[in-house]
Amino acid sequence: MESSDHPGADTVYERARRVMPNISLGTVYRNLKQLSETGKIREIRLSGGGNRYDKTLEVHAHFHCKACGKVTDVETGSVTAPAETGKLETVDIMFGGVCKDCLQTEKTVGRAEEKQ
Ligand SMILES: [Zn+2]
Ligand SMILES: [Zn+2]
Could you give the count of Cα atoms lying within 13 Å of 106 in the half-sphere of its Cβ? Predict the structure, then answer.
């Protein structure tokens, strides 16, 4: 809950193990599923497969870096749908591309490294 990035289940597992060495990956998955189902955290599905988890519940967009896999928050202001659409409950906006850090690395190293 304290992480401000958007960790995947494996990252959450690694972090949880530091405080609870005996925790299993299955327990982590179950807890993440329960937390997202009860609306405590938000589950983000990546187009390339895999899920990330987000503690920020307010409407915001995401940027997924295809080079390093990082997911960062994007300020979009308010997002609205036409009223005739129905009752809007969730907004899922995912931008894709190469993040600033990776662009910088690309410039200095000369090529982007495939880290996935
Ligand atoms: Zn990146
Ligand atoms: Zn987010």
Answer: 11
Per-residue pLDDT tens, the chain, 116 aa: give them: 667 789 999 999 999 999 999 999 999 999 999 999 999 999 998 877 889 999 988 888 999 999 999 999 998 777 777 878 888 777 788 999 999 999 998 777 655 455 54
* Å from CA of 85 to ligand 2 middle: 25
Domain-by-domain residue ranges, the chain? 9-109
- pTM for this model (two decimals): 0.75
User: Kind and range of the H or E element at 25?
Assistant: helix 25-37
Q: What is the CATH code for 9-109? A: 1.10.10
Give the Å distance between the CA of 102 and the centre of ligand 1: 4
